[in-house]
Amino acid sequence: MSNEQMSMNELSVDANNLYREETFTDLKIASIKRLSPIKADGSDDNSREVIFIGQTQLMSQAGPLPVHCQLSAANLGEAIAAFPEAVKQAVERMVEEAKELQRRESSRIIAP
Questions:
Q1: pTM
Q2: In the prediction, which pLDDT does 103 show?
Q3: Which residues face 58 on adjacent strands?
Q4: How much is the pLDDT for 1?
Q5: CB 36 within 8 A of CB 24
Q6: Which of 16, 17, 22, 54 has its CA nearest to residue 35?
Q7: First to last CA, the chain
Q8: In the β-sheet with 63-71, what is the strand arrangement from edge to edge?
Q9: With 13 labelled, which of 1, 60, 85, 95 sits at a CA distance of 20 to 30 A?
Q10: Is there a contact between 79 and 73 (Cβ–Cβ < 8 Å)?
């Protein structure tokens, strides 16, 4: 049996880690996903925290660049307020990672 077939046969859903996803948008730049924990029967799981994820796109020379970030928030209002700073920090991390990759590439020794 090949590795691909083995991994396909081992697929399973973690019934103890299910979330219901809702999306909120301002139809301009912001998209916020609210991931509400649920049980396998679809009922709310109040023993786990709701997760908020911010999403937007920035235009770059190579085209649209997706930006995703987790928002520290207890409710949608807090997620909306946290969105700008979280996106700013995510973009700063992306820029630093790109600089680090560029630095690594420029320091590579190329042998003929």
A1: 0.79
A2: 87
A3: 65
A4: 46
A5: no
A6: 22
A7: 41
A8: 18-25, 31-38, 51-60, 63-71
A9: 1
A10: yes
Q: 90: which 2 tokens?
A: 């995510």
Please state, in angstroms and as integers, the Cα–Cα distance from residue 19 to each residue in 11, 68, 74, 86, 97, following that order. Answer: 18, 18, 16, 22, 30
Q: Would you write out the chain's pLDDT as a tens digit for each of its 112 residues?
A: 455 555 777 889 999 999 999 999 999 999 999 999 999 999 999 999 999 999 999 988 889 999 999 999 999 999 999 999 999 999 999 999 989 988 888 877 666 6
Exposure b/e, 28-51, CB count within 10 A at least 16 = b: eebbbbbbbbeeeeeeebeebebb
Which residues, in sequence order, are bridge partners of residue 52? Answer: 34, 71
Report strand pairing: 18-25 vs 31-38: antiparallel
Residue 56 to residue 19: CA distance in whole angstroms: 21
| Residue for token pair 């301002």 | 26
> Whose CA is closest to 48, among 14, 81, 78?
14
